[in-house]
Amino acid sequence: MTAPGGAGLPDREETKGAGSPDPKERKEAEGADLPDLRYQNAGEAFRAALLGACIGLAIIVPGVSGAAVAILFGLYEKLLAAIGGIFKQFRACALFLLPVALGGLAGLAVGFFAVRALLGLCPFAVVALFAGLMLGAYPAIADNLRGEARTLPRLLLFAAGLALPAALGPAAVFASPGSLWPEGIGLWPCLLFVLLGFLVALTQVVPGLSATALLMLVGCFAPLLDSVSLTYWRQEPAVFALYACLAVGFLAGLVLCSKWIGRLLVRRRAPAFFAVCGLSLGSFVSMFLNPEIWEVYRGWAEGAPFAADLWPGVALFLAGLAAAYALVRAERRGRR
């Protein structure tokens, strides 16, 4: 008979090791696929806050893609990982996202008050500046395709990506003037705005898609902006139910879409970036063909003076192009 604890019976520690890992090991295993999200210095945290500010502005300026800006800053994949993994490693992800969120709120506030005012005064010049920044940043996105084979399926993905945002702008211009903005608040409008919030979140994590263009397409951009006032809130307090539904859909979409796209980039990185490059170029086209800028062209065609808007726009476009490309070159030197 073998003595207890001898060779005939497994040791308690061996039994524990053969089973499931302890909670600490399980937690580490779940977050093993996340990159290092810690900021090494204050400069990195400031860059993340600046990224957030640009994303906040992107929500207001027609055609600007927040995800494309994240690629320029070199934080796109970390941003996806932090949002998609928020329930796996809450503390690490939340600390990474905090500067981005604060910058986003600041950018949204500046965009809502200052940029909207400028768009009212010289819309073409403002859009041209952001278009130059987007086009100048494109090489940072295209760098992800270096050394990759240009196969037919990948080129088709590029073409499809190019066509989607390029078609979204004209669709918003020439679509019927109907709007999804409801006359009253009920179950159906609330469910519809949860879905709309989800789609807006998708535009924030897919490079090349614009939340502004989407909201214009469904006729909700102007009503949503107009609803943000004390007078409107006093008259229609039920609008806060729509805000809440948008927020629920947006947050759910942000987490789920970030997780899906993050996995796609891990498993099919090269094909995904062919589509991303197409989307980014398509967003450049959509910036000059959307309902707001179309009204500018219509005014010019009807005889409105355009020199004070057109030529500053050309100058700002070139300045934005040069500034963004200088940032791309600096980013490339930093990676060497």
The chain-level structural class is mainly alpha
- In helices, the fraction of residues equals over 70%
Low-confidence stretches: 1-20, 23-31
Count of DSSP H/I helices: 16
Basic shape: globular
C-alpha end-to-end distance = 67 Å
Q: How many structural domains does the protein architecture include?
A: 1
Strand content: under 5%
Largest sheet: none
Q: Which whole number gives the mean pLDDT?
A: 81
Question: How do the helices and strands follow one another from N- to C-terminus?
Answer: HHHHHHHHHHHHHHHH
Count the beta strands.
Answer: 0
Report Rg.
Answer: 24 Å
Biased composition (Basic and acidic residues): 10-30
Region (Disordered): 1-33
Transmembrane segments: 48-73, 94-118, 124-142, 154-173, 185-206, 213-233, 239-258, 270-290, 310-328
Pfam family, one: VCA0040-like
